[in-house]
Amino acid sequence: MNIIDFFIIEQKRLHNWMRADVSDLTLEEWHYKPQGKSNSIAFLVWHCVRTEDNILRFILQQRPPLWNEGNWSERLGLPPRVQGTGMLTEEARAFHITDPGLFMQYVEAVWREYEEYLAGITDGGAALSERTVTVKLVGSMPALQAIGQVCITHCSIHLGEISCMLGELGKQGLPL
């Protein structure tokens, strides 16, 4: 097994768990926020998917993100450029998705494309380990690290937050 094989397994696991976590949420549950400064489930899913989209398209392939290409910000009535990183707490906590079904169409398009991108890498990640990219607010790193650190590890941390909120809502979080 090489690192790309591992990334494929872990990214699919992340996507499947996140998909399962939100599949039966009501609109109210999508926007549940615990006390303090935590963000909603809707915000966390949006932030993760926007991040994956930006890494995949803009940083790794120098292409417009699906968010822009599909005019998703207008279709969903959401901010056109931000992805959550660096947002003021008040802005993030006010974030609202009015149509989770439509939003999930964007989510599935990003996840499908990312999984296909990884499956198309035939050198085990060698070229990505030699290529340096810059991820805003994180800095320069090998492209391979951008996938592992930002798209898998970072988003898995947010999945943990979502699972805790689901527990507070009386629902099942991560499978045991």
Topology at a glance:
Layout: H1 3-22, H2 27-30, H3 41-61, H4 66-69, H5 72-76, H6 89-94, H7 100-119, H8 126-130, E1 132-135, E2 139-142, H9 143-168
Antiparallel strand pairs: 1-2
Helix pairs in contact: 1-7, 1-9, 3-7, 3-9
Shape annotation: globular
Determine the number of helices (DSSP H or I, runs of at least 4 residues): 9
Number of strands: 2
Average pLDDT number: 94
CATH architecture: Up-down Bundle
Give me the strand/helix succession. Answer: HHHHHHHHEEH
Domain module tally: 1
How much of the residues is beta strand, in percent?
Answer: under 5%
Uncertain stretches of 5 or more adjacent residues: none
CATH superfamily: dinb family like domain
CATH class designation: Mainly Alpha
Please give a structural write-up.
- The chain has 176 residues and is mainly alpha-helical.
- It has one domain (3-168): Up-down Bundle (Four Helix Bundle (Hemerythrin (Met), subunit A)), CATH 1.20.120.450.
- 63% of the residues lie in helices and 5% in strands.
- A two-stranded antiparallel sheet has the order 1-2.
- Helix 1 (3-22) runs antiparallel to helix 7 and helix 3 (41-61) packs parallel to helix 7 (100-119).
- It starts with a helix and ends in an 8-residue tail after the last helix.
- The model has no long low-confidence stretch (mean pLDDT 94).
Give a quick precis of the structure.
By secondary structure, the chain is mostly helical.
